[in-house]
Amino acid sequence: MRILYLFAIALGSTMAAQTITFNGCHNLFDNQNFIFTKTGVDAFNKNIYMTTPVDGQPCGGLGTCEFKIQWNNTLTRWEFLADEGNGTFTSPSLIYYNSTGNNANMNPPSNTFGTWVENSAVTSGQCGGNLTATNSTMTGDVHSSSLGTSEVTKSKIQIFPNPVSDVIRISGIDTGQTTQIYSLDGKLVRSEPFDQKIDVSHLSAGVYLLKITIKNFESHEFKFVKK
User: Fold this and answer.
1) Is the Cβ–Cβ distance between 107 and 182 less than 8 Å?
2) pLDDT of 203 above 90
3) What is the rounded CA–CA span in Å between residue 10 and residue 12?
4) Rg, the chain, Cα only
5) Of 200, 67, 186, 76, whose CA–CA distance to 122 is shortest?
6) Which domains does the chain possess?
7) Which helix (DSSP H) or strand (DSSP E) does residue 123 occupy?
8) What average pLDDT does the chain have?
9) Sheet holding 167-171, edge to edge
């Protein structure tokens, strides 16, 4: 096993690539960025991310660091996994997990939302404890709130009309960065700079997920019905 102990997360993303950049746990992984790229969607409509390259990035004298972030539906939590050293993830080691307020989101939480708990049984505590903003960075395709469709009425952010025929309007956001629309099977069907009006007239009738990213990579997600 080239990697028994692992951890480093920095999340930095581009709209097209849907990436997460992680930097942390320097005792095991050195002070370097690890780039996770979305590789697919699981059966529960959760995104799956793997380090790029999956095999080849040097890591703290432990060999090659190969990581994956994915949803564990049985335990209802996001997990940060390290491969045994050959890029197959057939017997990965659990480095961190986060089970706080993440059920409604397609992408994993940031290091400042909920608690990414260090699995010290694997790391021997060498990652310095749970992930925080002081011991790690995690940016990109992550969320930092638990806002779900059932909580829309509690927020100042609103989308309307819903159902919609032609144009969705967004209110309550002054620092929008991007908007993305996904089909329920996780396919990205539209991505563009933020605008308070989104033309959805070209979409087929059905249910979609609108993801709005604002400053500091915080994101909010809303389901809407296209008539």
Assistant:
1) no
2) yes
3) 6
4) 18
5) 67
6) 19-140 (no CATH), 158-226 (2.60.40.1930)
7) helix 120-123
8) 79
9) 158-160, 167-171, 197-199
